[in-house]
């Protein structure tokens, strides 16, 4: 089976590495002009001229990147099976649609308003009560296209700095930590949930993911699974879906979802029975889902901006190095390291030791280190 | 770093899958005309015309297949670093050189003679005492080019059936089981040993490998490690080396070695901290060696000749499927499944269940099932 992947970055690379052992081959369709998958066949098509050629070479299509025009995904779906469906893409690209769907399915979100001018942004900030977070309604990821308003009077400056015509304005959530749940749904409708992951961001970029998230109540896990199951079923979703959540004293609050494998699931390559990448390939190919149970405890550390002392990290017996073969650039995801351990105590020590060889890494901080 | 691989079969495929995450790229040099690696760049060169082209595209060279002319390896070594060295290849291609080296290093072997005619074969059989095993001195693997003589009078028929000009004749070893040890040596001379594996063959082809080999004494393990360390150091070896051994009431007896990753080490992909493939890439690239400790107990089942019911195997939560994307043909290695468990009891049950979906698989038999 030949799988077409829309996008050609490191997520596509890891999908292919997981898919070859299942006898899949890969063709990537890159619209950025700078593919980095580094294996499989890559079609670079900045002008959209070679889509037919791409489609003639594949049996079904998936994506590793959700910021492509829904019209393109819909055109593809008329020719070849596309998993997950273009509707999933459409919902995830539009924060208003996403939040509306969350509300319909009973998934708690921060209180929110739409703003289409500096004036309405100020009005929204006043109604919600500051601080609020304003985000472009479409596009934007890794913290881009966002601003925090500490007072309604900051609306004009925020409106100008974001530079979009339609914003979603959210009441600030006083969360204790950020977590994510990754689930996978098969063509037959089977669903499997990975353990919830605790995520630490720095400068808007994910830095550390600890899995299974420590100190998580069974009730909270059940909530997260119920929420993502509702989304999977509502969207008749096939493949891996990620839901980012805030943990608050009043329970979980949904932040956003991603219709794909996710950075907070990279630990599954060594830390789970079946990786998120293999499970996505299994799902879109029509196979049974693989085992999502954890193997010990894991922490993924992103390598951001510069590689650091990889040779020293390769000497650590508990570290698994994944490089994306990309050039160094501030803020760029260059790779990740997964640290495995048998206990959280051991994990903290090992993560700190590994991070000491990554000059760009912020100090390891999560619920484990806060005592 | 661009790694050139001589040969382009499933071993090369798995080397590449392990090497991409370390930011290596791969160019395969195929002399068979039927490469199956399925990823990386493949240069097919049945006439030996494109070797210079291949060498211009790579930084260093290794192999996944040892049956290529030593003269080719030597020519390559004059242009680019080759690991392991051509001498390792030369020794492994010639059973007489191999057995002589074993003897020099104090590694026990079956008693052996050289035969260069039907008459000398008969004489050797008489001297050693039947049964004896006659093997072509060069070439031959997976049980090809071999014959068992139950009486010296069978020499003429055996000589003709093998059809080689120089044979090695070995006294039959009364072994309790076959095991192998896989070790890796870095450019700096560091050595790491994987746990010894117990191997079961059927019709001359490896079918099952259980690791760590059950019921193995510490003294036997120490012997195997001493033997392979002596080989690694003598050959100034860089990369993964495999030594196949017979376990007998009088201790271990060496059968043969392979200067490469080995089918009996495929379990390391999920069953060890670092796979044999990653460790080979680490070694030939000049990195530190990875952790060779086992993760639970494992059994690798080869998929031979026909694929069987892969969909059912994908449903087993403890099975890891690796397909080589090759067409079915009797006796052909099409893939393997690694079964993981926390105990040998559980392992046996799981292996039997998995094997029931592989019509070509012989009944699971090893020291665990013999009680």
Automatic annotation (TrEMBL), chains A, B:
What positions does the entry give for ATP binding? 95, 135, 140-146, 170-173, 178, 201, 255-256
* InterPro entries xref list: ATP-grasp, ATP-grasp_carboxylate-amine, ATP_grasp_subdomain_1, PreATP-grasp_dom_sf, PurK, PurK_C, PurT/PurK_preATP-grasp, Rudment_hybrid_motif
* Any one of the GO CC terms: cytosol
Q: Coiled-coil region(s) at which residues?
A: none
Pathway(s) served: Purine metabolism; IMP biosynthesis via de novo pathway; 5-amino-1-(5-phospho-D-ribosyl)imidazole-4-carboxylate from 5-amino-1-(5-phospho-D-ribosyl)imidazole (N5-CAIR route): step 1/2
**Domain ATP-grasp span(s) in chain numbering:** 99-285
**Recorded catalytic activity of this chain's protein:** 5-amino-1-(5-phospho-beta-D-ribosyl)imidazole + hydrogencarbonate + ATP = 5-carboxyamino-1-(5-phospho-D-ribosyl)imidazole + ADP + phosphate + 2 H(+)
The source's superkingdom equals: Bacteria
Query: Would you indicate the residue range of the signal peptide?
Result: none
Which GO terms are recorded in the biological process aspect for this UniProt protein? 'de novo' IMP biosynthetic process
One Pfam family cited in the UniProt record for this chain: PurK_C
- Enumerate the GO terms in the molecular function aspect: 5-(carboxyamino)imidazole ribonucleotide synthase activity; ATP binding; metal ion binding; phosphoribosylaminoimidazole carboxylase activity
Q: Which UniProt keywords apply?
A: ATP-binding, Ligase, Nucleotide-binding, Purine biosynthesis
* EC numbers, comma separated: 6.3.4.18
Functionally, this protein is described as follows: Catalyzes the ATP-dependent conversion of 5-aminoimidazole ribonucleotide (AIR) and HCO(3)- to N5-carboxyaminoimidazole ribonucleotide (N5-CAIR). Catalyzes the ATP-dependent conversion of 5-aminoimidazole ribonucleotide (AIR) and HCO(3)(-) to N5-carboxyaminoimidazole ribonucleotide (N5-CAIR).
Q: Which HAMAP family does this chain map to?
A: PurK
Subunit organization:
Homodimer.
Q: Which family does it belong to?
A: Belongs to the PurK/PurT family.
Q: Which NCBIfam families match?
A: PRK06019.1-5, purK
Query: Mind telling me what this protein is named?
Result: N5-carboxyaminoimidazole ribonucleotide synthase
From which source organism is this entry?
Marinobacter profundi
Highest classification ranks of the organism: Bacteria, Pseudomonadati, Pseudomonadota, Gammaproteobacteria, Pseudomonadales
């Amino acid at each position: 089976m030949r799988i077409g992947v829309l996008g050609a970055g490191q997520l596509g690379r890891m999908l292919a590495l997981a898919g070859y052992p299942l006898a899949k081959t890969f063709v990537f369709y890159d619209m950025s002009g700078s593919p980095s998958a580094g294996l499989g066949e890559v079609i670079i098509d900045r002008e959209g001229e070679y889509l037919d050629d791409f489609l003639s070479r594949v049996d079904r299509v998936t994506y590793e990147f959700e910021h492509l025009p829904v019209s393109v995904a819909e055109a593809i779906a008329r020719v070849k099976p596309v998993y997950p469906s273009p509707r999933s893409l459409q919902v995830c690209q539009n924060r208003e649609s996403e939040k509306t769907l969350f509300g319909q399915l009973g998934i708690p979100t921060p209180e929110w308003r739409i703003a289409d001018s500096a004036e309405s942004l100020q009005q929204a900030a006043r109604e919600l009560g500051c601080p609020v977070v304003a985000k472009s309604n479409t596009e934007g990821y890794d913290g881009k296209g966002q601003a925090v308003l500490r007072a309604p009077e900051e609306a004009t400056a925020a409106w100008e700095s974001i530079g979009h015509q339609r914003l979603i304005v959210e009441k600030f959530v006083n969360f204790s930590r950020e977590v994510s749940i990754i689930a996978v749904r098969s063509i037959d409708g089977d669903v499997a949930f990975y353990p919830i992951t605790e995520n630490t961001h720095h400068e808007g970029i994910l830095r550390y993911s600890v899995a299974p998230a420590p100190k998580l109540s069974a009730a909270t896990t059940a909530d997260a699974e119920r929420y993502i199951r509702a989304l999977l079923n509502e969207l008749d979703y096939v493949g891996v879906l990620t839901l980012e959540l805030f943990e608050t004293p009043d329970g979980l609050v949904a932040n956003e979802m991603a219709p794909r494998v996710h950075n907070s699931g990279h630990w599954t390559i060594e830390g789970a029975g079946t990786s998120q990448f293999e499970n996505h390939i299994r799902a879109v190919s029509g196979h049974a889902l693989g085992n999502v149970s954890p193997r010990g405890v894991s922490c993924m550390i992103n390598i951001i901006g510069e590689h650091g002392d990889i040779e020293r990290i390769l000497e650590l017996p508990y570290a698994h190095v994944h490089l994306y073969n990309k050039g160094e650039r501030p803020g760029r995801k260059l790779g990740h390291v997964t640290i495995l351990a048998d206990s959280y105590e051991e994990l903290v020590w090992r993560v700190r030791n590994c991070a000491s060889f990554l000059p760009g890494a912020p100090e390891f901080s999560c619920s484990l280190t806060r005592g």
